[in-house]
Design brief:
- By secondary structure, this protein is mainly α.
- Helices cover 73% and strands 5% of the residues.
- It contains 11 helices and 2 strands; from the N terminus they run ααααααααααββα.
- A two-stranded antiparallel ribbon has the order 1-2.
- β1 and β2 form a beta hairpin.
- The longest helix is centred in the middle third of the chain and has 48 residues.
- It is globular and about 55 Å long.
- The protein starts with a helix and ends with a helix.
- The mean pLDDT is 93.
Amino acid sequence: MGAERVFAYGAAAGLLGDLLLGDPRRGHPVAVFGRAAGAVERVLWRDHRGWGALHTVVCAGGAAALGAVAARAVRRSPAGSVLLTGAATWAVVGGTSLAREAAAIGRALEADDVEAARARLPHLCGRDPQALDADGIARAVVESVAENTSDAVVGALAWGALAGVPGLAGFRAVNTLDAMVGHKSPRYRRYGWASARLDDLAGWPGARLTALLATVAGGDPRGAVRAWRADAGRHPSPNAGPVEASFAGALGVRLGGTLSYGGRVEHRPVLNDRGRAVQVADIDRAVRLSRRVSWLALGTCAAAKLLCARLTKGRTS
Protein backbone atom coordinates (compact mmCIF):
# COMPACT_ATOMS: atom_id res chain seq x y z
CA MET A 1 0.00 0.00 0.00
CA GLY A 2 1.40 3.38 -1.02
CA ALA A 3 1.93 6.29 1.35
CA GLU A 4 -0.89 8.17 -0.34
CA ARG A 5 -3.43 5.47 0.54
CA VAL A 6 -2.05 5.07 4.05
CA PHE A 7 -2.59 8.78 4.62
CA ALA A 8 -6.05 8.84 3.05
CA TYR A 9 -7.37 5.85 5.03
CA GLY A 10 -5.62 6.78 8.26
CA ALA A 11 -6.53 10.47 8.22
CA ALA A 12 -10.15 9.64 7.41
CA ALA A 13 -10.26 7.19 10.33
CA GLY A 14 -8.66 9.74 12.64
CA LEU A 15 -11.04 12.51 11.65
CA LEU A 16 -13.99 10.17 12.08
CA GLY A 17 -12.62 9.14 15.48
CA ASP A 18 -12.46 12.79 16.51
CA LEU A 19 -16.04 13.31 15.33
CA LEU A 20 -17.34 10.32 17.30
CA LEU A 21 -15.11 10.43 20.38
CA GLY A 22 -13.70 13.91 20.69
CA ASP A 23 -10.61 14.40 22.83
CA PRO A 24 -9.82 11.98 25.68
CA ARG A 25 -10.61 13.41 29.11
CA ARG A 26 -7.32 12.16 30.57
CA GLY A 27 -3.90 11.49 29.15
CA HIS A 28 -4.33 13.50 25.96
CA PRO A 29 -1.08 13.30 23.97
CA VAL A 30 -1.08 17.07 23.42
CA ALA A 31 -1.41 17.63 27.18
CA VAL A 32 1.43 15.17 27.79
CA PHE A 33 3.56 17.07 25.29
CA GLY A 34 2.66 20.33 26.99
CA ARG A 35 3.85 19.04 30.35
CA ALA A 36 7.09 17.80 28.79
CA ALA A 37 7.63 21.15 27.05
CA GLY A 38 7.02 22.91 30.35
CA ALA A 39 9.66 20.74 32.01
CA VAL A 40 12.15 21.58 29.25
CA GLU A 41 11.36 25.27 29.68
CA ARG A 42 12.11 25.13 33.40
CA VAL A 43 15.58 23.84 32.56
CA LEU A 44 16.38 26.06 29.57
CA TRP A 45 14.61 29.35 30.20
CA ARG A 46 16.72 32.44 29.73
CA ASP A 47 15.59 35.84 28.52
CA HIS A 48 17.31 35.17 25.21
CA ARG A 49 16.24 34.18 21.71
CA GLY A 50 18.92 31.56 21.37
CA TRP A 51 17.77 29.60 24.40
CA GLY A 52 14.19 29.88 23.18
CA ALA A 53 15.25 28.52 19.80
CA LEU A 54 16.90 25.57 21.53
CA HIS A 55 13.68 24.95 23.43
CA THR A 56 11.77 24.93 20.14
CA VAL A 57 14.22 22.53 18.48
CA VAL A 58 14.23 20.13 21.42
CA CYS A 59 10.45 20.01 21.81
CA ALA A 60 9.19 20.25 18.22
CA GLY A 61 12.10 18.24 16.84
CA GLY A 62 11.60 15.59 19.51
CA ALA A 63 7.91 15.23 18.68
CA ALA A 64 8.62 14.89 14.96
CA ALA A 65 11.42 12.42 15.66
CA LEU A 66 9.14 10.24 17.81
CA GLY A 67 6.62 10.27 14.98
CA ALA A 68 9.33 9.21 12.54
CA VAL A 69 10.47 6.36 14.80
CA ALA A 70 6.91 5.11 15.20
CA ALA A 71 6.27 5.30 11.46
CA ARG A 72 9.48 3.42 10.72
CA ALA A 73 8.54 0.70 13.21
CA VAL A 74 5.32 -0.14 11.31
CA ARG A 75 6.43 0.69 7.78
CA ARG A 76 6.30 -2.95 6.63
CA SER A 77 2.71 -3.36 7.81
CA PRO A 78 0.06 -1.51 5.77
CA ALA A 79 -2.54 -2.08 8.48
CA GLY A 80 -0.15 -0.89 11.17
CA SER A 81 0.72 2.20 9.15
CA VAL A 82 -2.95 3.06 8.65
CA LEU A 83 -3.67 2.52 12.35
CA LEU A 84 -0.73 4.69 13.39
CA THR A 85 -1.77 7.46 11.00
CA GLY A 86 -5.34 7.24 12.27
CA ALA A 87 -4.24 7.38 15.90
CA ALA A 88 -1.90 10.30 15.23
CA THR A 89 -4.59 12.20 13.33
CA TRP A 90 -7.13 11.64 16.10
CA ALA A 91 -4.58 12.79 18.67
CA VAL A 92 -3.64 16.06 16.95
CA VAL A 93 -6.93 17.31 15.48
CA GLY A 94 -9.44 19.00 17.73
CA GLY A 95 -12.46 19.84 15.62
CA THR A 96 -15.04 18.17 17.86
CA SER A 97 -13.79 19.78 21.07
CA LEU A 98 -13.74 23.13 19.26
CA ALA A 99 -17.35 22.68 18.15
CA ARG A 100 -18.49 21.53 21.60
CA GLU A 101 -16.94 24.49 23.41
CA ALA A 102 -18.33 26.96 20.90
CA ALA A 103 -21.79 25.39 21.12
CA ALA A 104 -21.73 25.47 24.93
CA ILE A 105 -20.97 29.19 24.91
CA GLY A 106 -23.68 29.73 22.31
CA ARG A 107 -26.26 27.96 24.49
CA ALA A 108 -25.31 30.10 27.47
CA LEU A 109 -25.71 33.26 25.43
CA GLU A 110 -29.06 32.09 24.07
CA ALA A 111 -30.20 31.64 27.67
CA ASP A 112 -28.97 35.19 28.48
CA ASP A 113 -26.46 33.72 30.92
CA VAL A 114 -23.53 35.96 30.08
CA GLU A 115 -21.61 34.98 33.20
CA ALA A 116 -21.70 31.30 32.23
CA ALA A 117 -20.50 32.22 28.73
CA ARG A 118 -17.66 34.25 30.24
CA ALA A 119 -16.68 31.33 32.45
CA ARG A 120 -16.39 28.99 29.44
CA LEU A 121 -14.67 31.38 27.04
CA PRO A 122 -11.12 30.70 28.37
CA HIS A 123 -11.58 27.06 27.28
CA LEU A 124 -11.71 28.34 23.71
CA CYS A 125 -9.45 31.39 23.49
CA GLY A 126 -7.24 33.70 25.50
CA ARG A 127 -9.48 36.78 25.54
CA ASP A 128 -10.28 38.57 28.79
CA PRO A 129 -13.89 37.45 29.29
CA GLN A 130 -14.79 40.12 31.83
CA ALA A 131 -14.07 42.80 29.22
CA LEU A 132 -16.69 41.38 26.84
CA ASP A 133 -20.45 41.73 26.64
CA ALA A 134 -22.67 39.14 24.95
CA ASP A 135 -21.98 40.44 21.44
CA GLY A 136 -18.26 40.60 22.14
CA ILE A 137 -18.26 37.02 23.36
CA ALA A 138 -20.12 35.86 20.24
CA ARG A 139 -17.59 37.63 18.03
CA ALA A 140 -14.68 36.12 19.98
CA VAL A 141 -16.16 32.64 19.55
CA VAL A 142 -16.62 33.03 15.78
CA GLU A 143 -13.05 34.33 15.42
CA SER A 144 -11.71 31.44 17.49
CA VAL A 145 -13.68 28.87 15.51
CA ALA A 146 -12.24 30.29 12.30
CA GLU A 147 -8.63 30.41 13.51
CA ASN A 148 -8.74 27.02 15.21
CA THR A 149 -10.23 25.37 12.13
CA SER A 150 -6.84 26.05 10.58
CA ASP A 151 -4.70 25.40 13.65
CA ALA A 152 -6.54 22.38 15.05
CA VAL A 153 -7.62 20.59 11.88
CA VAL A 154 -6.64 21.79 8.42
CA GLY A 155 -3.01 22.62 9.21
CA ALA A 156 -2.50 19.20 10.75
CA LEU A 157 -4.02 17.47 7.72
CA ALA A 158 -1.86 19.51 5.35
CA TRP A 159 1.33 18.52 7.19
CA GLY A 160 0.13 14.93 7.47
CA ALA A 161 -0.18 14.85 3.68
CA LEU A 162 3.25 16.45 3.27
CA ALA A 163 5.21 14.45 5.85
CA GLY A 164 3.06 11.66 7.27
CA VAL A 165 3.03 10.93 11.00
CA PRO A 166 6.13 13.09 11.70
CA GLY A 167 4.33 15.98 9.99
CA LEU A 168 1.22 15.49 12.10
CA ALA A 169 3.19 15.31 15.35
CA GLY A 170 5.57 18.12 14.46
CA PHE A 171 2.82 20.51 13.44
CA ARG A 172 0.84 19.99 16.62
CA ALA A 173 4.02 20.41 18.68
CA VAL A 174 4.85 23.70 16.98
CA ASN A 175 1.29 24.97 17.39
CA THR A 176 1.25 24.00 21.07
CA LEU A 177 4.60 25.68 21.72
CA ASP A 178 3.31 28.88 20.15
CA ALA A 179 0.31 28.82 22.49
CA MET A 180 2.58 28.23 25.47
CA VAL A 181 5.46 30.65 24.85
CA GLY A 182 4.78 32.47 21.58
CA HIS A 183 2.98 35.49 23.01
CA LYS A 184 4.55 38.90 23.67
CA SER A 185 4.58 38.88 27.45
CA PRO A 186 7.71 40.14 29.25
CA ARG A 187 8.76 36.56 30.01
CA TYR A 188 8.37 35.26 26.46
CA ARG A 189 9.05 38.24 24.20
CA ARG A 190 12.54 36.88 23.46
CA TYR A 191 12.32 33.29 24.64
CA GLY A 192 9.18 32.57 22.61
CA TRP A 193 10.31 34.33 19.45
CA ALA A 194 11.51 31.17 17.66
CA SER A 195 8.34 29.24 18.50
CA ALA A 196 6.15 32.08 17.24
CA ARG A 197 8.08 32.45 13.98
CA LEU A 198 8.14 28.69 13.36
CA ASP A 199 4.41 28.55 13.99
CA ASP A 200 3.91 31.28 11.36
CA LEU A 201 5.86 29.18 8.85
CA ALA A 202 4.20 25.89 9.74
CA GLY A 203 0.73 27.42 9.70
CA TRP A 204 1.09 29.07 6.28
CA PRO A 205 -0.16 26.15 4.10
CA GLY A 206 -3.09 25.26 6.34
CA ALA A 207 -4.24 28.86 6.72
CA ARG A 208 -4.39 29.44 2.95
CA LEU A 209 -6.14 26.11 2.39
CA THR A 210 -8.64 26.94 5.16
CA ALA A 211 -9.36 30.34 3.61
CA LEU A 212 -9.82 28.79 0.17
CA LEU A 213 -12.16 26.08 1.43
CA ALA A 214 -14.17 28.55 3.53
CA THR A 215 -14.68 30.50 0.33
CA VAL A 216 -15.91 27.37 -1.45
CA ALA A 217 -18.03 26.01 1.41
CA GLY A 218 -19.49 29.26 2.73
CA GLY A 219 -22.71 30.95 1.74
CA ASP A 220 -21.11 33.93 -0.02
CA PRO A 221 -18.05 33.02 -2.10
CA ARG A 222 -17.72 36.50 -3.59
CA GLY A 223 -17.92 38.10 -0.18
CA ALA A 224 -15.32 35.71 1.18
CA VAL A 225 -12.89 36.44 -1.67
CA ARG A 226 -13.46 40.18 -1.34
CA ALA A 227 -12.83 40.17 2.41
CA TRP A 228 -9.80 37.90 2.04
CA ARG A 229 -8.18 40.13 -0.58
CA ALA A 230 -9.04 43.42 1.10
CA ASP A 231 -8.51 42.69 4.78
CA ALA A 232 -6.30 39.63 5.39
CA GLY A 233 -3.07 41.61 5.15
CA ARG A 234 -4.27 44.13 7.74
CA HIS A 235 -4.46 41.49 10.47
CA PRO A 236 -1.37 41.31 12.74
CA SER A 237 -1.14 37.54 12.22
CA PRO A 238 -0.06 36.39 8.74
CA ASN A 239 -2.13 33.21 9.10
CA ALA A 240 -5.14 34.25 11.17
CA GLY A 241 -5.74 37.14 8.75
CA PRO A 242 -6.73 35.09 5.67
CA VAL A 243 -8.72 32.61 7.76
CA GLU A 244 -10.74 35.12 9.76
CA ALA A 245 -11.30 37.40 6.77
CA SER A 246 -12.60 34.56 4.58
CA PHE A 247 -14.86 33.30 7.37
CA ALA A 248 -16.16 36.83 7.91
CA GLY A 249 -16.98 37.22 4.23
CA ALA A 250 -18.49 33.74 3.92
CA LEU A 251 -20.73 34.33 6.95
CA GLY A 252 -21.54 37.94 6.06
CA VAL A 253 -20.35 39.31 9.41
CA ARG A 254 -17.76 41.78 10.71
CA LEU A 255 -14.84 40.44 12.72
CA GLY A 256 -11.87 42.15 14.33
CA GLY A 257 -11.93 45.43 16.23
CA THR A 258 -10.97 46.11 19.84
CA LEU A 259 -10.10 43.16 22.08
CA SER A 260 -8.20 42.45 25.27
CA TYR A 261 -5.56 39.77 25.99
CA GLY A 262 -4.11 39.40 29.47
CA GLY A 263 -5.04 42.94 30.38
CA ARG A 264 -3.50 44.31 27.16
CA VAL A 265 -5.96 46.10 24.85
CA GLU A 266 -5.47 45.69 21.09
CA HIS A 267 -7.23 47.66 18.37
CA ARG A 268 -7.33 45.36 15.36
CA PRO A 269 -8.68 46.32 11.94
CA VAL A 270 -12.23 45.34 11.08
CA LEU A 271 -12.49 42.38 8.70
CA ASN A 272 -15.29 42.52 6.12
CA ASP A 273 -16.61 45.96 7.03
CA ARG A 274 -19.56 45.39 4.68
CA GLY A 275 -20.89 42.68 6.95
CA ARG A 276 -23.21 43.00 9.93
CA ALA A 277 -22.34 42.62 13.60
CA VAL A 278 -21.95 39.06 14.87
CA GLN A 279 -25.04 37.56 16.50
CA VAL A 280 -25.35 34.53 18.77
CA ALA A 281 -26.85 32.46 15.93
CA ASP A 282 -23.65 33.00 13.94
CA ILE A 283 -21.76 30.74 16.36
CA ASP A 284 -23.65 27.72 15.08
CA ARG A 285 -23.18 28.88 11.48
CA ALA A 286 -19.43 29.19 12.06
CA VAL A 287 -19.26 25.71 13.58
CA ARG A 288 -21.10 24.21 10.60
CA LEU A 289 -18.76 26.00 8.20
CA SER A 290 -15.77 24.74 10.19
CA ARG A 291 -16.98 21.15 9.86
CA ARG A 292 -17.49 21.47 6.12
CA VAL A 293 -14.04 22.98 5.72
CA SER A 294 -12.48 20.17 7.78
CA TRP A 295 -13.90 17.37 5.65
CA LEU A 296 -13.15 19.22 2.43
CA ALA A 297 -9.57 19.61 3.67
CA LEU A 298 -9.31 15.86 4.16
CA GLY A 299 -10.51 15.24 0.61
CA THR A 300 -8.25 17.92 -0.82
CA CYS A 301 -5.13 16.72 0.99
CA ALA A 302 -5.77 13.07 0.13
CA ALA A 303 -6.44 13.89 -3.52
CA ALA A 304 -3.32 16.07 -3.76
CA LYS A 305 -1.15 13.35 -2.26
CA LEU A 306 -2.61 10.75 -4.65
CA LEU A 307 -2.05 13.05 -7.63
CA CYS A 308 1.57 13.71 -6.61
CA ALA A 309 2.18 9.97 -6.26
CA ARG A 310 0.80 9.29 -9.74
CA LEU A 311 2.85 12.10 -11.29
CA THR A 312 5.99 10.79 -9.59
CA LYS A 313 5.35 7.26 -10.86
CA GLY A 314 4.69 8.60 -14.33
CA ARG A 315 8.06 10.38 -14.43
CA THR A 316 10.01 7.36 -13.22
CA SER A 317 8.29 4.79 -15.47
